[in-house]
Every structure is written in structure tokens, then in C-alpha cells.
Amino acid sequence: MIARELMIPGAFVFEPEVFPDHRGSFVSPMQASEFVKAVGHPPFFVGQVSHSVSRRGVVRGPHYTRTPPGVAKYVYSPWGKVLDVVVDIRLGSPTFGHWESVVLGSETQCAVYLPVGVAHMFVALTDESVMNYLLSSEYVPDNELALSPFDPELGLPVPDDITPVLSPRDRTAPTLAEAKSAGLLPHYETSMDIEAALCPW
């Protein structure tokens, strides 16, 4: 497995080796030893595992969790193809307001680690695109927030060759500036402290 840190501090991409044969293929998108080497601490306790299936053009996010409590995520796409986007919305972060994208899917089986406090968005590039999520805590609706994927200040990479399909919540989500004015954005230092406490061993 090859790991590399993204421009966003604390976010990583993991590229596992895929073993194909006449039966199909085998891959391990999460390996604790490689996670420790890259991130510097063991993987978080998994509080919830979820997956979504999306048709081409679906845009989910950017979503983030109120911090505190915050949540860390490990995501990958075992089937289909998605443009996965990490957005740094942590006030005080050296890359606040910046984003980085990675193509995930069945071809590469790459995974992305999203630390506490960042926002996550993806765009389904093919029909039946599957996303798997390992979360450090269970989903609590009141703690889940969203930003507009069309915020001109962020300039997120929604491809021009798709017709975006969004939920009502995502379509009416606030811009980064509006969320900041409303006091809804996480702070970098708080996020880092919560991240460190996820793995106390």
C-alpha cells in the first residue's frame, strides 16, 4: 500500500495493491500498519460503517460534523467512479478554504482519510457508484452540517459535463462565508485536539 498526505493537513490518500486473477480480484483498502506509518497514530475506533449508491451526476456534500464532537472518516469506492473532495474549513488552519480532489473507484481502490473538522464532498462520475464510509462515531442528525457545492469562494470541482443531482439540503446549504458568520465552522486547534483523543492508546 502506498500512502501520501494531501495538501490539507492530516488528510491522506491510500493506494492498496489489487490482486486480480481468473476469478476476479482481491484488495484490502485498509491496513492498520500502513495507516500508522502515514498518519502517525492507530486507526480510530469505528463507531459506524455506512455506504451509499449514487447515479452519475449525484453530488453529495460538502458535509461536515459540528466540532465538537467532530468525526473522522475513512472512505473508499469499491465500485464505480467518484471524484472525492476534501475541503479544509477549520478556522486557523494553514489551508483554510482550500480543497483537494482524488478520483476513487473500482479501478484503483484508493481510500481517503479525512481528519476531524474537514468537509467531505463527492461527485458520482458513473451510475451505481458505491461509497463506503468508516466513521469514528455514529451519525447524529443534529450535528451534521453542509455547505454549498457551488460556493464561488470555494470553487469546488463539480464537472461541467454532468447535470448535478442534489438533495434539498445540499441545494440550499450556506456558503463558507455564511457558515463562518453563523459560527458553524470548526477551529483547527480544537479539531486537532479531538483527533488526538480519538486514539488514546
From TrEMBL:
Q: What is this protein called?
A: dTDP-4-dehydrorhamnose 3,5-epimerase family protein
Q: Which organism is it from?
A: Amycolatopsis melonis
Q: Name one Pfam family in it.
A: dTDP_sugar_isom
**Database matches in SUPFAM superfamilies:** RmlC-like cupins
Which superkingdom heads the taxonomic lineage of this protein's source? Bacteria
Q: Which family does it belong to?
A: Belongs to the dTDP-4-dehydrorhamnose 3,5-epimerase family.
